[in-house]
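Researcher: Go.
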Amino acid sequence: MDKKLLLLLLVIPLISIILTWTVINSGVRQGSKIVFPDQAVQKSVADTFFNDTTIIDFGDNGLPESKIIGKQLFHYPGKEDSEIIMPVITLFRAVGAPVLVNADRGWINKDGSRILLKGHTIIERHKTRFNKYSRLETPELTIWPDRDYAETDKAVKISSEATVATGIGMKAYLNKEHYYLLNNVKATQIPAKRNK
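Model: Structure:
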């Protein structure tokens, strides 16, 4: 037998064994890497939890001024605010329809004087003989129920029977139904319906 052929027959299996061993060990090392979560990051566990929560704030006259309903309410240790899932807020009026507010999530401070809403947030007041229809939509809104005031620095769309206005940033005086858009304001007049 030729020496070159014999050497080739011995070297090829040896190279094959070395390559196989390298590939298998590399895969084992890659698969054995365990990623541990950062130990400094801890998720808070609620110290108080309620399902189907209703919070009613009564005025000095004994009548309700506002009502907050949430699917769930969480309070976390060391936090001042409580988180509300799917909040629905009703701001009652002496005359006319109440102002209805809803959002995906909300945070309310311990005395109920400030509510931060996030997600698809809507403020709506239905038309009565005492007030006009209005609807406001924004991704984030802060409300001070005691002051009947709300504001945001996010995009806002305000609709009424006659107009649709959009802008960035808003200050709203809810008791007077005055909405002030701050930047990039655009408005569209809706034509009145003609009687046939």
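Model: The chain has two domains: 1-30, 48-189.
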